[in-house]
Write a structure and sequence with these properties.
Modified residues (4-aspartylphosphate): 63
Largest sheet: 5 strands, parallel
Domain PAC: 213-267
Strand content: 5-15%
Helix content: 55-70%
Number of helices: 13
Coiled coil: 284-435
Domain PAS: 143-189
Domain Response regulatory: 12-128
Length: 450
């Protein structure tokens, strides 16, 4: 059999042996396998060591024939303190009298010297494995007791016999229902059914339990005062060792308050929906009025924009007319210079001077017209930028107001459209200004703008 070193390392051994050589050699070897090995040289020393470390020692390995106190006498005294600790006897004798006494002392194993270490470790492994299993079972029982306490303190527990007659109810059920346990013991489980609860629920429950199947669902139970409480219930059959049903156990959780809160929440949501519908209806009227006002202002802005574009077109036309006149004058002056001779030079000098003067006046007039046009355009631009800014602010304000009333995707798209429209009109004005600059004479523009 394989030896589980990890398991052996969880336990402590008391080794009692009067032979110094055997005691030293075997104790050193056993120390490699056990968590701790306490060593004693005779029965008296072994008893003292056990009493000093009895809370730690899990297993005893002892010789039989020892001075002062032999193995049998030592174990008798130990058994007066502990009836369960496992014991292994090791001796050179196989006397039947010793064996009989060992059986009375509930000694687990008996090995003959010289000791086969591997066999000894195998015995120890079997014994500590049983000890470990007992430890796990004890731990599980303790956990089950804790779970039982938790279930009893937080849940309703009802037990029945094979006919589903109540045999036990816990304190929590009595506290909630108002019944005491004596009033319910012997009653059929469906005695707890509230009057308006469907009978087929208990029919299904009974059918499942009698066929060794669990049942889960909601039960409406009656209280002693005639009122009801609702539980989330889980009912399972209890079985004996052969698998036959010997009764049932029902674990229930009171959900009456939860259901009440859910109903209150549903009513509150319905009321809130109604209030929102009323507010949205009122908000739609105000929203329509705001949208109409916005449309009116935008239409007005479009009319003013159209008028401004006409004025700008007029200035562009005048500017182009003066440019052509100036060009024609320059052409005529060039022809005059080309065809004139010395005799006519004096004659045309005065006319040429008059033309230059008229040309200068025309240029000045054109420059002034250009300056006035620029001022007008600039002023128009400032005015429209101001109006557009005001409209943008108003749109933003109206947008925020509309959003508080109703988050309607169509309305938002309309507002975005008018915002984009205002931006496009601003760009148009800037492009017109650029066109005016582009059509002016280069020298003339240099004089104006440097």
């Amino acid at each position: 059999m394989s030896i589980d070193k990890n398991l052996l390392k969880k336990f402590t051994l008391l080794y009692v042996e009067d032979d110094d050589v055997i005691r030293v050699e075997l104790s050193q070897l056993l120390s490699n396998f056990f968590s701790m090995v306490h060593v004693a040289k005779n029965g008296k020393d072994g008893l003292r060591t056990y009493l000093e470390n009895q809370d730690e020692i899990d297993l005893i390995l002892t010789d039989l024939n020892m001075p002062e106190l032999n193995g049998i006498e030592m174990i008798k005294k130990i058994r007066s303190f502990d009836n369960k600790i496992p014991i292994i006897f090791a001796t050179a004798h196989s006397d039947s009298e010793f064996l009989a006494e060992a059986i009375k002392l509930r000694v687990q194993e008996y090995i003959v010297k010289p000791i086969d270490v591997r066999y000894l470790l195998s015995l120890c492994n079997d014994i500590v494995n049983n000890l470990y299993q007992e430890f796990l079972l004890k731990q599980q029982r303790e956990e089950l007791e804790k779970y039982k306490e938790i279930i009893n303190s937080n849940n309703i527990v009802i037990k029945t016999d094979t006919h589903l007659n109540i045999t036990y109810v816990n304190e929590l059920f009595c506290e909630i229902s108002g019944f005491n346990s004596d009033e319910l013991i012997g009653k059929e489980l469906k005695y707890l059914k509230y009057k308006d609860m469907a009978s087929d629920i208990y029919t299904t429950l009974y059918a499942n339990i009698l066929n060794n199947k669990p049942w889960q669902g909601k039960l409406k139970n009656i209280k002693k005062d005639g009122t009801a409480f609702t539980t989330d219930a889980f009912v399972i059959p209890t079985l004996d060792e052969t698998g036959d049903m010997i009764g049932a156990i029902s674990i229930q959780r009171d959900i009456t308050k939860e259901l009440k809160k859910k109903r209150e929440l549903v009513l509150a949501l319905m009321k809130e929906k109604s209030d929102i519908f009323i507010r949205s209806k009122e908000g739609n009227l105000e929203q329509n009025q705001v949208i109409n006002d916005l449309k009116h202002k935008l239409e007005k802005a479009q009319i003013e924009e159209t008028q401004s574009l006409k004025i700008i077109d007029k200035y562009i036309y005048s500017n182009e007319k003066f440019r052509l006149e100036n060009k024609n004058l320059k052409t005529e002056l060039g022809l005059y210079k080309k065809n004139s001779d010395e005799n006519l030079a004096f004659k045309f000098s005065k006319e040429n001077s008059d033309l230059r003067l008229e040309n200068k006046k025309t240029k000045d007039k054109l420059a002034q017209l250009q300056i006035d046009s620029e001022k007008t355009i600039s002023q128009q631009r400032v005015n429209y930028e101001t109006k557009i800014g005001e409209l943008s602010d108003k749109i933003n304000e109206l947008t925020e107001k509309i959003e508080t009333i109703q988050t309607d995707e169509t309305l938002l798209q309309k507002l975005e459209y008018w915002k984009e429209k205002a931006k496009q009109e601003t760009i148009k004005i800037e492009n017109l200004e650029k066109q005016i600059i582009a059509h002016g004479d280069k020298n003339f523009m240099n004089k104006i703008f440097g």
